[in-house]
Amino acid sequence: MIRCETKRMGRPGSSVMPITIMPSAVVVAAWVMMGGIPRVSQAADDTPDRPNVVWIMTEDNSKHYLRHFDSDGAPTPRIEAMAAHGVTFDRAFSNAPVCSVARTTLITGCYAPRLGTQFHRKLVPASLPDDLPMFPAELRRAGYHTSNRKKMDYNATASPDVWDESSGKAHWKNRGAGQPFFHVRTITATHESRLHPQTNPENGPLETAADAVVLPPYFPDTPEFRHTRAKYQDLITAVDAKVGAVLDELAADGLLESTFVFYFGDHGGVLPRSKGYVYETGLHVPLVVRVPDAFADTVDRELGSRTKGFVSFIDFGPTVLNLAQAEIPSGMDGKPFLGDGVQVGEVDARDTTIGYADRMDAKYDMNRSIRVRDWKYIRHFEPIFPDSLVNVYRYQMRAYQQWKQLHDAGKLDFTQDAFFRPRTPEALYNLAEDPHETINLADAPEHAGQLRMMRSRLEQELREWPDLSFMTEVYLVDEAMGDPVAYGQDHVAEIQRYIETANLCLQPFDQVEDLLRAALDDTDPLVRYWALVAALSLGDAATPLLPEIERRLLDVEPFICTRAVEYVALFGDKDPRTNLYRSLNRAISEAEALMIIRTAIFLQEHTGGRFPIDMQRSKLDVLKPKKNALSMGYWKYLNSIAKDNPPQSRRQLNPAAVEDPPPPVKTIPGTSGK
User: Fold this and answer.
1) DSSP characters for 125-150?
2) Strand partners, 377
3) Helices 577-586 and 558-571, interaxial angle, to 10°?
4) 151-182 b/e with 16+ CB inside 10 Å = b?
5) What's 611's DSSP letter?
6) Residue in 396, 314, 301, 398 with CA at minimum distance from that of residue 102
7) How far apart are CA 120 and CA 297, in angstroms?
8) pLDDT digits (tens, 9 = 90+) for 222-266
9) How large is the C-alpha radius of gyration of the chain?
10) What whole-number distance in Å separates Cα of residue 133 and Cα of residue 485?
11) pLDDT number for residue 617
């Protein structure tokens, strides 16, 4: 398990090598290009004992849009000049491909599924353990001024001691005289909303030539996609100037050469198939750290150098604490990559990163990924749902809309159409040869050993956290959010069993048929749930279990009934919509309603018109007190597209005969709930 229990090592007696400046034509050219940053005396901070740290975060952009990281990207002269006076991390990763989960990972230094903070956005905020504070609180205890301008978007409750100030006016200038500071500046100019019609008019003016951009092979090559890519590169260029403005402000205040400045994206994005997905375009972010002259001796690297060592968001907090000579809480999962006690060889040898994606707004999914050097493994725990399953907010982008229109018209090639097909439970990619993750090698016999190794490494991580998503958000919201970490430790044995049940789909059906049949009738409701998920992942092969699956249409738990509805709709010979409506009306929480609405959208849009949904059959009583409930947007979406037409089937469909089930009673996993 990737976890650090190392305490901060002080500067006295440090064995790190002094940093040296590489006078090269490239560095000089970059310095001239940016107009030069004025050198101002350090004034009150002439000989600081500890460095300041500034984070400049841009929203929703992976590394693929910057020329400094990708030859097809936009020029960013100010960021490139930062790199000339610092270090470029070519393999930096967000652990999550969406804002709130990524930012919570950053602020805690922990994997979100271990903390119960993996759902975007939170229905209920998670409480953190007393011994695991958000890391700026540790900086404040060490004497730092902490300020955030201004986005937080955490899925955990922030204690009052995290920020001295967090607002649109928060600034390092508000600190005490000579006080070191940590400041976060979020630049919103690249947020995905900037590609929505209201801010990106059709055929609007561009600085980047649309015919010159390079599109990945999974996109259709259309004027709309080219315009969208070109527009986003324009936004990256605009962001570069904003980054430069922060550097100029530090220089004007005499603080630049006593301040580590991090530039990075808060996760990937933002063209289709990036934000919200565990592909490289969703997780692989740009990271440049400018090293100040006053603290060059704490960094064991040459200025202008690059490293391919893997760092991820769990490591950023520990790194800041290490630079500040503050204590790193032992409960953090990450470890520092800069500062005293950090050796360049050890960082360069790091070769692994973990990713996770769960609910995004109202779109439920569950994916986990591990990248080891240039090999990438993705475990899709919900493979029946295509990547294209609608996210109402994301589909405001015209490129998303056009992609779906071309799919519906049958005008996509095989690679472009993969976005709309069901996924496989496992995917294996060789990024050295397939950087766009379009060639799945999971079934290739010659790579069976690589597949087993990466599957095992990822499963070990999920077991050791333990991964709370196996409890489902339905149970977490009901039972766990007061202390999710303790809840996970109390339910380790159950979570191990749920992982084993979900992974039965990775074996041939004839080897696991009896195990699945028993699991479908288990007294633990979540064993039944994951058995249904495994059956769905096996597809047609699991049809011998149809009698047991049809019994689950009347499960006491509405969200479990819904998984049976999915299987019967896809692989059975009955119309299960009556059970779907009944389950939705019996939902007793928004989390449960969201899961069931996801199924309704899937049946409406991905079963060839056989199961149109009539949302007038659902009262959604559980949502009426929640004016801004996530589910309501999807309920309205379904109402806008659903028509109560008779089902059209490849078989003769018979309405499922059901009797009223008993009222729903939430049972504690591990106890009788059948």
Assistant:
1) PBPPPTT---HHHHHHHTT-EEEEES
2) 370, 428
3) 160
4) bbbbbbebeeebbbbbeeebbbeebeeebbbb
5) S
6) 314
7) 40
8) 999 999 999 999 999 999 999 999 999 999 999 999 999 999 999
9) 26
10) 13
11) 76
pLDDT digit string, tens, across residues 503-548: 999 999 999 999 999 999 999 999 999 999 999 999 999 999 999 9
Side chain identity, residue 144: Y
Distance of CA 633 to the CA centre of its chain: 22
What is the rounded CA–CA span in Å between residue 270 and residue 61? 6
Tell me if residue 241 falls in helix, strand or coil.
helix
Closest CA to 15 of 482, 281, 339, 441: 339
CA dihedral of residues 219, 222, 225, 227 (deg, nearest 10) = 160
Cα(171)–Cα(56) distance, rounded to whole angstroms? 13
Model pTM score: 0.89
CB 556 within 8 A of CB 673: yes
At 441-490, the pLDDT tens digits run: 999 999 999 999 999 999 999 999 999 999 999 999 999 999 999 999 99
Distant-in-sequence, close-in-space partners of 595: CB < 8 Å, separation ≥ 6 = 364, 472, 473, 474, 559, 562
pLDDT at 31: 38
Distance from C-alpha of 461 to C-alpha of 481, rounded to nearest angstrom: 22
Angle CA 542–547–553, to nearest 5: 100
Task: Quote the pLDDT of residue 454.
Answer: 98
Q: How far apart are CA 225 and CA 213, in angstroms?
A: 10
| Cβ atoms of residues 425 and 538 within 8 Å | no
Q: How far apart are CA 556 and CA 49, in angstroms?
A: 63
**421 forms bridges with which residues in the sheet?**
none
The CA distances from residue 260 to 62, 165, 322, 392, in Å, are 22, 20, 12, 39
Q: What is the pLDDT of residue 29?
A: 40
Which string of DSSP letters, residue by residue, matches 161-189?
A: TS-SEESTT--GGGSPTT--EEEEEEE-T
Cα separation, 474 vs 595, whole angstroms = 9
Residue 72 per-residue DSSP state: T
pLDDT of residue 639: 65
Spell out the SS3 assignment of 195-219.
HCCCCCCCCCCCCCCHHHCCCCCCC
Rounded Cα–Cα distance for residues 449 and 439 (Å): 17
Prior bond of 121 cis (ω within 30°): yes
How many CA atoms, within 13 angstroms, populate the side-chain half-sphere of residue 404?
17
The answer to whether the CB of 220 falls within 8 A of the CB of 416 is: yes
636 CB-near residues (< 8 Å, 6+ apart): none
3-state secondary structure 6-68: CCCCCCCCCCCCCCCCCCCHHHHHHHHHCCCCCCCCCHHHCCCCCCEEEEEEECCCCHHHECC
Sign of the torsion angle spanned by Cα atoms 597, 598, 603, 605:
positive
**Paired residues of 430 in beta bridges:** 375
CA distance 526 to 420: 29
Q: Of the candidates 433, 656, 392, 417, which has an alpha carbon nearest to the alpha carbon of residue 550?
A: 656
| C-alpha closest to that of 299 among 309, 289, 308 | 289
Rounded Cα distance, 42 and 156, in Å: 38
pLDDT at position 489: 98
Q: Is 38 exposed, middle or buried (0-12, 13-18, 19+ CB in 10 A)?
A: exposed
pLDDT at 277 (0 to 100): 98
